[in-house]
């Protein structure tokens, strides 16, 4: 059984021409414009994240600086510098009443033994704490996120050295704060519906987190956080893929304290406007293509129907079959001219055949 071969007809040529005329400029325009639109959207996202980080950083730095000034001021008090627990106790209780976000303010001698406390609870040895060791080295300010020996929960502790008359560290004064109190500004930070902030200490342990379902009963180590491993992310936001397949946009900022501030947002939400724009462009191109096909079909039939009729007429003429009326001769376009030419050709053939019959 013979199979019909594909013929590249006028309809196909017309369809391709219309598609090229309508879609090629549209696609070219979008290809050039979409790159600029994506660049502009990315710049807006970056600016939004950086401004958010700048605001948070300013608040954290001011808060941290205020706490450090409190401790430094306390070390200049004679009662605190005396390293006498009886004299230090009243001062520490007064400080504890004034700075309510600190659940305990306490002093430590050079052996790490707790001398006096603002809360009146039993004395504890802190020789194993990094903040104490830093103070004994003479570091101006020391910070550490630890599980508090007082509450058994994560806490941020700040400590400064208490110096003797020779200027050498004789002990330390420390202030411990619940992470819930410290993290209010972080938890209140929102970027859209899915964006949040994360504050880590110098050892990448969580000080404060705006992440949903974040555990609060243990010190959480975030050293393996993907955002911390992206090169250049401290200069401009970058995207990464989380283990669960979720794509995020993140920006990392280093604070003077050695802390790390991370802000993140779901990629889908951050680039939602661009995605809608691209979807609209795809829909527009699809609708345009569909309309072109419909128009090409209508025009193609309008063109090919009379041509096919004239083809049938010429085939009849070739077999000596004449029609009284040739279709489409009344048209004023090229098809009408072709029909009239065929009509004259048919008349000429008929007259020639009549002359031949007379001679015979």
Shape: rod-shaped
Helix content: 40-55%
User: What is the overall number of helices?
Assistant: 9
Based on secondary structure, the structural category is alpha+beta
Q: Using the 3D structure, state the CATH architecture of the largest domain.
A: 2-Layer Sandwich
Radius of gyration: 42 Å
| CATH homologous superfamily classification of the largest domain | PAS domain
Give the class-level CATH name of the largest domain. Answer: Alpha Beta
The strands making up the biggest β-sheet line up spatially as: 2-1-5-4-3
Q: Which fold name fills CATH's third level, the topology of the largest domain?
A: Beta-Lactamase
What is the count of distinct domains? 3
Straight-line distance between termini:
45 Å
**What summary fits the major beta sheet?**
5 strands, antiparallel
- Average pLDDT, to the nearest integer? 84
Beta-strand content: 15-25%
The total count of strands amounts to 10
Low-confidence stretches: none
Order of helices and strands: HHHEEHEEEHHEEEEEHHH
């Amino acid at each position: 059984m013979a199979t019909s071969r594909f013929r590249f007809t006028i309809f196909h040529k017309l369809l391709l021409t219309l598609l090229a005329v309508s879609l090629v400029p549209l696609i070219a325009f979008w290809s050039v414009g979409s790159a600029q639109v994506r660049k502009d959207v990315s710049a807006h996202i970056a600016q939004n994240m950086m401004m958010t980080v700048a605001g948070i950083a300013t608040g954290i730095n001011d808060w941290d600086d205020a706490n450090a000034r409190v401790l430094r001021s306390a070390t200049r008090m004679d009662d605190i510098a005396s390293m006498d627990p009886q004299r230090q106790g009243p001062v520490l209780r007064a400080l504890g009443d004034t700075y309510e976000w600190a659940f305990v303010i306490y002093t430590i001698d050079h052996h790490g033994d707790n001398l006096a406390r603002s809360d009146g609870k039993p004395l504890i040895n802190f020789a194993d704490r990094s903040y104490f060791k830093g103070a004994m080295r003479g570091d101006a300010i020391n910070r550490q996120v630890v599980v508090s020996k007082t509450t058994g929960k994560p806490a941020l502790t700040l400590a400064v050295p208490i110096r003797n008359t020779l200027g050498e560290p004789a002990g330390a004064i420390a202030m411990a704060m619940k992470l819930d109190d410290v993290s209010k500004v972080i938890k209140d930070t929102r970027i859209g519906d899915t964006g949040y902030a994360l504050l880590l200490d110098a050892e990448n342990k969580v000080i404060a987190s705006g992440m949903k379902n974040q555990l609060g009963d243990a010190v959480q180590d975030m050293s393996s956080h993907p955002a911390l491993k992206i090169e250049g992310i401290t200069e401009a936001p970058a995207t990464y893929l989380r283990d669960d397949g979720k794509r995020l946009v993140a920006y990392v900022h280093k604070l003077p304290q050695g802390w790390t501030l991370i802000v993140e947002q779901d990629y889908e939400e951050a680039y939602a406007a661009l995605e809608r724009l691209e979807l609209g462009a795809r829909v527009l191109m699809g609708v345009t293509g569909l309309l072109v096909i419909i128009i090409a079909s209508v025009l193609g039939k309008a063109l090919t129907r009379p041509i096919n009729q004239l083809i049938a007429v010429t085939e009849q003429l070739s077999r000596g079959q004449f029609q009284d009326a040739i279709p489409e001769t009344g048209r004023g376009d090229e098809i009408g001219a072709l029909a009239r030419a065929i009509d004259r050709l048919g008349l000429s053939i008929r007259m020639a055949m009549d002359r031949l019959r007379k001679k015979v």
